[in-house]
Write a structure and sequence with these properties.
Order of helices and strands: HHHHHHH
Number of helices: 7
Shape: elongated
Structural class: mainly alpha
Radius of gyration: 20 Å
Largest sheet: none
Strand content: under 5%
Helix content: 55-70%
Number of strands: 0
Distance between the termini: 65 Å
Length: 154
């Protein structure tokens, strides 16, 4: 059975035959076409970014949406140095950081930001945030605002 070639490439179809493969030929599994993994990985990342607010976002659902196995999906992320679930969490936390900075101090709702970015509760966000950055979301925000205010005075 011939391999399916995704209709879109990460560079918007600008690839040429001279574009180097995603991995050296010696490390590419037999039968794998150059660039296919990159294209699928690109589509998976785009899908995940569009669905970060869904607390039920899971490797199983992502694989199903792309017509691939969960094992193949995890294999795509092996070269990234982190798992798919870790990458999803990083994306959600980064979104929360941006949302915290963009929210006026008098309108801050950690619970709303948590739900908007796919966390099921403020506590879940706080634990993940503290684990990643060493501070609670509100402490991090206070430090970041103070740092920026000090930088503006200079």
């Amino acid at each position: 059975m011939a391999a399916r070639i995704p209709p879109h490439t990460p560079d918007g179809g600008r690839s040429t035959a001279s574009t180097p493969p995603s991995r050296p030929p010696a490390t590419r599994p037999a039968g794998e076409l150059p660039g296919v993994n990159d294209a699928v990985l690109f589509r998976v990342r785009q899908f995940v970014r569009r669905h970060l607010s869904d607390p039920g976002l899971s490797p199983e659902g992502i694989a199903r949406a792309h017509g691939v196995s969960v094992r193949y999906l995890h294999r795509l992320f092996e070269g990234e140095g982190r798992t798919l679930s870790q990458w999803i969490r990083e994306q959600r936390l980064e979104g929360c950081r941006r949302a915290l900075l963009a929210t006026p101090a008098d309108a801050l709702s950690v619970g709303l930001i948590a739900r908007r970015w796919g966390f099921t509760s403020p506590g879940q966000l706080s634990r993940a945030f503290h684990g990643a950055y060493g501070l609670s979301p509100t402490d991090w925000l206070a430090n970041e605002r103070a740092r920026r205010a000090a930088g503006e005075r200079q």
